[in-house]
Amino acid sequence: MSQAIGILELTSIAKGMELGDAMLKSANVNLLVSKTICPGKFLLMLGGDIGAIQQPLKPARRSRRNAPSTAWCWRIFTPAYCRPSAA
């Protein structure tokens, strides 16, 4: 299965820590980055299989319904792999 990177940016540091915990518990993903990026904003970066990266969106969506004032942005990237040509 292809590897992917999921990035979640939130406007609440507390909500970011809470979601990070829920996301790591809900799927087999690796935590790549979990930090504040400027006052009041939080960044989570997860790595793993594409299906595993999509799984943590469920707790994030539930949390968004419970706290609509928390803005967030979620993106999934699949890195391109280059194989050097045999010389």
TrEMBL record:
Record bears the keyword Chloroplast:
no
Its domain of life? Answer: Bacteria
Keywords associated with the record:
Bacterial microcompartment
- One matching Pfam family is BMC
Q: Where in the cell is it found?
A: Bacterial microcompartment
| A cellular component term, taken from the record's GO annotations | bacterial microcompartment
**Cross-referenced Gene3D superfamilies, in alphabetical order?**
3.30.70.1710
Q: In this protein, which residues make up the domain named BMC?
A: 4-87
**What's the family?**
Belongs to the bacterial microcompartments protein family.
What is the name of the protein in this document?
Propanediol utilization polyhedral body protein PduT
- The species is Klebsiella grimontii
